[in-house]
Amino acid sequence: MTYRDNSCKFVHYRVMLTDQRKHFLLQRLHHDGRIVAKELSAELALSEDTIRRDLRELAAEGLLLRVHGGALPSSPTVASLDVRRGLAMDEKRKLARVAASLVDRGQTVFIDGGTTNLELVRCLALDLVATIITHSPSIASALEPHQGIEVIMVGGTLLRHSMVNVGAIAFETINRLRADLCFIGLTGLHAGEGATTGNFEEAAIKRLIISRSAETVSIVTTEKLGAVSLHAICPAASLATIVVPSQADTGQLANHLTIIRA
What we know:
- This protein has nine helices and 17 strands.
- The chain has 262 residues and is α/β, with parallel strands linked by helices.
- A seven-stranded parallel sheet has the order 8-7-6-11-14-16-17. Strands 3-5-4 form a three-stranded antiparallel sheet. It has a three-stranded antiparallel sheet with strand order 12-13-15.
- It is elongated, with a radius of gyration of 20 Å.
């Protein structure tokens, strides 16, 4: 098989330099949404060991997520909080304005942590009367101007990467609460792999929040669609509703949940 490199020359895969092979694999991953090492090995007449080695090195660079038999796209939103604060801010604000309209007067709403949900809070009407539960100090602080909102703050062990409380205290508290609606943050949403995030403890708390809420919504920016992080939260169908950019390619997700485009 041949491959066109950036200089528009055709190069046989077996004689590519390592960087060229990696570039090819990332292009294939972007196009197909996954890599199956065995299938690609047969297609390219190349050993699976070579492909797996390339995948391991790309995974170490954070450019993909290795799974059994191959690889899936890795989410860039598992980066540090400072980096995430600057990602797709205009898109987050646009989506957050639409998501905020889903909150009705008098509801009890659980708002998960994350920079996108922080924009959601900033878009809530100042005269909104509601009860909001959160395990995020950042979310609770941002609600200060909303005098009609009762804020229930869930304590626990602070996970600084996401600025949310996790652990036994958070788990026991959330398990005794119930919400009409929750907004769940995630770092990847894939039709097959579902909703994922980068931390095991955080994933467990998110699952609990979903189980204690009548309806679940997630605001999903472009870079999260089709991406996968290490820890599973839930199947895509468990989210019920997602808010995405108007031109987003949602693929097979439409078979699993309601999509609101903004």
